[in-house]
Amino acid sequence: MNDLLVMLQIDGRRAVIPAADVQSVIELEAIYPVPRAPDYVLGLTAMRSQSLTVIDACLALGLSSDCTTSERAPIVDIDGHLYAIRVDKVDDVVEAQSDVTPISGGFGPGWERVARGMVETDRGPALVIDPKLLVLGSTAAAA
Amino acid sequence: MDDLLADFVAETREMLEAIEGELVAWEADPSDRAKLDSIFRFVHTVKGNCGFFDFPRLEKLSHAAEGALAEVRAERRHADSRLVSAVLAIIDRITQMTNAIEAGEDLPQGGDEFLIAALEPDAGDIGETVAIQKTDGEVKEAGTAAAAPRSIRLPVELLDRVMSGVSDMVLARNDLARRLRDAGNEPTLDGPFERLSGILTDVREAITKMRMQRIELLYNALPRLVRDLSSELGKQVMVDFEGGDVELDREMIEMIRDPITHLIRNAIDHGIEKPAARLAAGKREIGMLAIAARQSGNKISIMISDDGGGLDTAKIGAKAVSSGLVTQSELDAMSDDAVMDFIFEAGLSTADTVGAISGRGVGMDVVRANIEKIGGEISVSSNAGEGTMFFLQIPLTLSIVSALTVSVDGQRFAIPQSYVEEIAHGGSASIQFSRVGDTDLVTFRDRRFPCLTLNNVLELEPRNAGPDQRLVLLRLGSNDLFVLAVDKIHDQEDLVIKPLSPSVMISGTYSGTTLLDDGSPVLMLDVPNIASQNGLISDVRQRPSQASEVETIVESAPTRTVMTFVAFNGRKRAIALDLVARIDQVDATAIDIDGDREQVVIGGRIMPLIGVDGASLPDTQIKLLRLSDSECEVALAVAELGESVEIDAQLTQSEDPSFEGVALIGDQPVPLIDAYRIFARHAQPARIARTAICRLPEGDPWTERMLAPLVEAAGYEIATGDEPADVTIAIAIDGAADLPPSDEAAVITLHSDPDAVGTSGSGVYRYDREGLLTALRKVRSTPNQRKAS
To answer: According to DSSP H, which parts of B212-340 are helical?
Structure first.
């Protein structure tokens, strides 16, 4: 309860990442593609002399649709590597108004793999995404 | 030695701190195998380190404790409370001694035998002794705590943070520089900005140095170890080091120090045979121990090989069966290589006798554990009767890699310089492309190489290799060579390589990433992986002995290979490629030009510098070709690097004596620099060039006590026999000097009476130090005098 969450929009759906997992939100500038990397790896970008791996959330979820994308991306640190996650939109930081709960019937293919559950916010219910699963799980899934 | 000692103390103390908890736990539960193992490792390491320093008492103590613990490990003895107390007492004593060593005091007296005796299975109760030892220890500790530390140890994370902060500053500086340029000339800002840049460069260099050390540092300690060990064992061992300039993370050096020391001990103790046995086996009396480090991609390979008896697979196998690691039938099905790997298992030793040096079955498992802890690998290969080679691969988490940056489709990539054999222009006349099936082949100097196009490797726009591309000839392991065709070759630079995220690593194409000065990320290609993905190699490993055979491929062709470059006068020149040891880039500050003397400092060494010829140098980075005649090195400064081309061995004569001749490259005449002349002029061993000889009056006590040290300090050697001297110092008593031998040129006459000085030309009052030094300097600055007279 009362945890801070970063509200995102992925493929038109509301999703949140715990604010504690998000280092910062940056404006994505030049993305340098990485040939032969999995398709959800958009490439590398630089932030203050560090390289970040840019992950496309839509592709990582296996939603092949053309997602609209925003310039702003949350940065997460997973096992010492920094990732920028490209999403439709980065909204505000909101407060969780309920515990994280599962819903019967699951969240649907793609989402299910990265979902921690559902949470109520003042903007309505949102899916809680585990950024580690989003970023690493997709690696394992592709490998 | 002091630094090493401080390291030893610090390391021992760290280990003590680390095992303190384990000690207590082991005391509570002596059957806990894991705790026992870590305590065992501690005493084993202390023993190893003391053997290296001269601490016989410490060594004896740790050896005794190790022996008792080994018994327990082998389950020949039960760890009862008495044994536990005895071991703890010894560890306390080690703590005490370490403190004393650090404080530079004498070691606490006596009592060691008592402690050692207490380890014996039938020893009496020593509870009391332990108590006494403990109080002693506490008192000592209180005494040494006040000593001020001479150095501090920093967590590596802190250094990392500082380093990335400095990198940020460099990027911010570059950004600022761009803006300043855009804003036009601002003299009030440019000065301070230049200063800031300079400071930043210094700081960056210093920070980088903080983390990086040459592996030489590790090497330095080894010859002594080898010498002591071999004389102790009655063996003759020659040790050969290679790749001392490979740099790696300071932390890494610390981590591999113990394993490497251990491998060397093993090689000398078990590998290399006694001289008589060697002669009987038809080998040289002196055993060879070779240690070679090499940077390859994101790994550092270290090979430790000896030419001793090799591993006895039959014996290892038998041991493995008797220790229950495998069954006989499993063993029969195993390859020799797999059997050899058993030496890395805990509790397996092939040594027949247990010596003070090694051979307790610990060691190889500890070595492997330590190497794997830092993400490295170790493997062994051996031929019975011919020797053993250990092959270590150490990752470089943060290491500076010299790399070639290339690009395809406008995107840059880096290739570790260590793989790059040569670069060439695809359009060069000496290169032919051909296609067999879908495979491109390149014929280059009568050899045919498989050719990969980086575009295809990276699955970009597919294309065939062609003359519009640049070719990079890469060497992998032994004799696997292949060509990688790229669109452009940019530059060679030192890059700080950072690890890539797993999502990128699974492509199997890259080994790391780095940021260029403009802030753009560049991927480092994983050359061995790319090659194996394309079926170009089977095994990347190589034995060091094979590495040295490599150079002989291109011999006996009627052509020769030269490297072209543009000199500072804007002219194109060429130099024989086999003389170019490496290409370096140095800061302008590393270059020292003073009159005729031109020198450059590279990696802490002063080298003669040529190629400047009075031209004004750019004040940023200067490219150097390091020329080597295999003994001496000379640095050749160039304005621009060219490429390596093959030319007809027949040269057109040149009028200018500094050229060997003129070669026709493309349609241009390019003078080939006469390297023989360069080395004849610059490459005399520095020592001979510097030392002049001075003859002093013999048998005079004042001369011996006062004059000789002064003259030597001025860089002269004192003549001992009849050799010709550059200068003779004579002493005039009452105005009359001893006559110097007539064949010697300069004479400095020392007068005991200051007033007599003016009467003769080269006279100096004997306590006029400045005057004497000036006179000596004058002689040295006119070196031809000796011949002239």
So the answer is: 216-220, 222-233, 250-266, 275-280, 313-322, 328-332, 336-340
Least confident interval from A34-38, B10-14, B31-35, B758-762: B758-762
Q: In 3-state terms, what secondary structure has residue B215?
A: coil
State how far the Cα of B410 lies from the Cα of B276, in Å rounded to an integer: 64
In chain B, whose CA is at the least distance from the CA of A80?
B501
Residue A75's domain is classified under what CATH number? 2.40.50.180
CB-defined contacts A:B, below 8 A:
82
Q: Are B269 and B358 in contact (CB under 8 A)?
A: yes
| Sheet with A115-121, side-by-side order of all strands | A89-95, A4-10, A13-18, A124-129, A115-121
Strands A41-47 and A13-18: unpaired
| Nearest Cβ partner for B458 among A35, A79, A142 | A35
* Cβ-Cβ contacts under 8 Å, B498 against chain A: 50-51
> Closest by alpha carbon to B237, among B306, B310, B311, B312?
B306
Whether A131 and chain B come into contact, CB under 8 Å, resolves to: no
Asked which of B227-241, B283-297, B434-448, B718-732 is least confident by mean pLDDT, the reply is B718-732
**What average pLDDT does the structure give for chain B?**
75
- Note the pLDDT of residue B268: 87
Q: Would you state the pLDDT for residue B551? A: 34
pLDDT above 80: residue A119? yes
Q: Is A50 in Cβ contact with B164 (below 8 Å)?
A: yes
Contact between chains at A40 and B503 (C-beta distance less than 8 A)? yes
Which residues of chain A make contact with B508, given a CB cutoff of 8 A?
A: 36
Burial classification of residue B637, based on how many CB atoms lie within 10 Å of its CB (0-12 exposed, 13-18 middle, 19 or more buried): buried
d(CA B667, CA B21): 77
Backbone angles phi, psi at B625, to 5 degrees: -100, 125
In this prediction, residue B721 carries a pLDDT of: 67
Q: How many other CB atoms are found less than 10 A from the CB of residue B358?
A: 26
> What interface predicted TM-score (ipTM) does this complex get?
0.85
Range of lowest pLDDT (A89-103, A106-120, B396-410, B453-467) = B396-410
Which residues are bridge partners to B187 per DSSP? none
Residues contacting B168, CB < 8 A, separation 6+: A48, A49
Q: How many domains does chain A contain in total?
A: 1
Residues 6+ apart with CB under 8 A from B393: B299, B300, B301, B302, B376, B377, B378
The residues, any chain, with a CB within 8 Å of residue B101's CB and separated by 6 or more, are B5, B8, B9, B55, B107
Range of the domain at A113: 4-142
Nearest to A34 among B499, B507, B520 (CB): B507
Looking at mean pLDDT, say which of A27-31, B152-156, B550-554 comes out highest.
A27-31
Rounded-to-integer distance, Cα B699 and Cα A113, Å: 94
Question: Two tokens at A85?
Answer: 């996650």
